[in-house]
Amino acid sequence: MKKLLLLAVALIAILVACAGGEDASKQGMVISQAHIYLPAAGADGTSASDVAAAFMDIDNYSQNDDHLIGARVDFARAEIHEMIMADGGMKMQKLDAIDIPADSGIQLQAGGYHVMLIGLNGSIKVGDQKIVTLLFEKAGEISVPMLVTAEE
Ligand SMILES: [Cu+2]
Fold first, then answer.
1. Domains of the chain
2. 7 C-alpha to ligand 1 centroid (Å)
3. Phi then psi for 36, rounded to 5 degrees?
4. pTM for this one?
5. 111 Cα: distance to centroid of ligand 1 (angstroms)
6. Residue among 69, 66, 65, 90 at smallest CA distance from 78
C-alpha cells in the first residue's frame, strides 16, 4: 500500500512538473479515460467474475511510431485483447501488439481493444485504485493508477 502511495505521489510530482513547463502542448505517450471495468459487481463492490478489463485512450504525441506490447498488474495476469466478429458472434482474441503510429491514438473500449485482467481471485473491488503498467516498444513502461468501476 505504501508503495502505491509513493508511486501516486511520484506521478503527481511528474504531472505538476509537466504542467509548469513553458510549453503546454502534450508530449510523449498520453493515457486518459483510464479505468478498470469489473463485470457483475454487486452492491458491496465485489464480483464473482474472475476477469476484468482495463479501458483507456492512448495518444502518441511523440515523433516515433510505437506499439503497445504488453501490460502488467500485481494482482492478476494481464493480456492485450481485441473483440472480433467470428462465427456470427463476438469473440476475444489475444494480441501481441497494437500499433500506435506517431501523432495518432487508439481507444481501448468495450467491444474493441482492452487489457484483459485474468485470475482476479477476488483481489479487486469497485472503488479500488490499482496501478496498471503499460509496456510500449519505444516509450517503455508507463504506470497508470486506474479506478475500478462497474461501468464500461
Ligand atoms: Cu479480453
1. 27-149 (2.60.40.1890)
2. 27
3. -110, 125
4. 0.82
5. 9
6. 69
